[in-house]
Write a structure and sequence with these properties.
The protein has one domain: Rossmann fold (3-Layer(aba) Sandwich), CATH 3.40.50.450. The chain is α/β, with parallel strands linked by helices. The chain is built from five helices and five strands; from the N terminus they run E-H-E-H-H-E-H-E-E-H. It is globular and about 40 Å long.
Length: 161
């Protein structure tokens, strides 16, 4: 059996944590440990330096950053920071739309904007020209992600070589 990749998940905590937990629980890859709401609030109280330190520590040793794209993910400043950090450190980088995963409280949400569209590379192209975003089947998003997540991550890592 192939070794599971270690990844860092980037997402909008308040809106998408329940959707993200579904993906973490699939067991397809080794992701960063979930941070509780209380732990995240403690980190945030430390200000920008504390948040940046937390991101650095949790991204260390990860081969890929998986941006889980919900309705408002593209607006989040720390998601933007994580995307830039992953790209500059030449980590694999991939986006997965999660709007069709059901949150037990709110159901599904609208498809979010591609967060990689916001960045222009030195080549003049958008980062979205280099980073793949996958939109799982609306009829069975959970199983589509579960069956393909490891392959999407491997492709992202290979694309950065």
């Amino acid at each position: 059996m192939a070794t599971k990749r270690r990844v860092f998940y980037s997402f909008h905590y308040d809106n998408d944590v329940f959707r993200v937990q579904q993906i973490r629980n699939m067991g397809a890859i080794d992701g960063d440990e979930p941070v509780s709401k209380n732990d995240w609030e403690t980190v945030k109280k430390g200000g920008d330096k504390a948040i940046e330190k937390w991101i650095d520590e949790n991204m260390d040793g990860k081969s890929c950053v998986v941006v889980l794209i919900g309705e408002d993910t593209y607006k989040r400043p720390w998601v933007k920071h994580e995307i830039v950090k992953a790209w500059n450190e030449k980590r694999g980088l991939v986006g997965i739309y999660i709007h069709n995963l059901k949150d037990p409280k709110t159901g599904t949400c609208y498809k979010g904007t591609n967060p990689f569209e916001q960045f222009t590379c030195n080549s003049g192209k958008k980062l979205s020209d280099y980073v793949e975003c996958y939109n799982p089947k609306s009829t069975d998003a959970y199983n589509d992600i579960k069956e393909n997540l490891a392959d999407w991550i491997e492709k992202a890592i290979e694309d950065r070589k």
